[in-house]
Specification:
With 162 residues, the protein is α/β, with parallel strands linked by helices. Helices cover 16% and strands 31% of the residues.
Length: 162
């Protein structure tokens, strides 16, 4: 654990990778500051141990991955998905920890020329199967202010996006 002035801390923790995974070690981080907790998890598989973040985080930022269903029979797609959590699994993590804001910040949507990649709506719909709390899907240059509430700032207003 790295301690900062005034009781702030950064606690790295190992996240679960598939057995024999080429992506290891892989870490998540728990930031504690001003009575608040922010948790960021990098590539990982679902497990309840990494969800044990008492006290509950103010914000929980996670990675997530899905592929077009037609591609899931391909071994190389299965290997990619094996390094990540699905929206349904990630929703389970959010449901266990009940953050003030849950966010997807590393998003893997796999498609090809034949099958369109899953959409943001697909990620949200699958997450909602297991989690009903506040959720945002990250965008480039999005920022978060973590205080009594968590405020999301987008790089450009939605009306200015293509």
């Amino acid at each position: 654990m790295n301690s900062c002035a005034s009781g702030e801390s950064i606690l790295p923790f190992r996240v679960m990778s598939p057995i024999g995974a080429v992506i290891k070690p892989c870490y998540g981080y728990r930031f504690e500051f001003g009575g608040r907790v922010a948790v960021f998890s990098s590539d990982t598989r679902y497990n309840e141990t990494s969800s044990n973040t008492a006290p509950a985080p103010t914000s929980w930022m996670r990675e997530v991955a899905i592929a077009a269903p037609e591609l899931m029979k391909e071994a190389y797609i299965q290997r990619i998905i094996a390094h990540h959590t699905t929206p349904r699994e990630t929703g389970q993590v959010f449901a266990l920890t009940r953050p003030k804001l849950a966010a997807y910040t590393h998003i893997v949507a796999i498609g090809n020329a034949q099958f369109a990649p899953p959409t943001v709506e697909d990620f949200i719909a699958q997450t909602r199967q297991t989690y009903d709390g506040p959720l945002v899907v990250g965008e480039d240059l999005m920022t978060f202010d973590i205080g009594e509430t968590v405020t999301v700032h987008r790089a450009q207003p939605q009306s200015a996006r293509a």
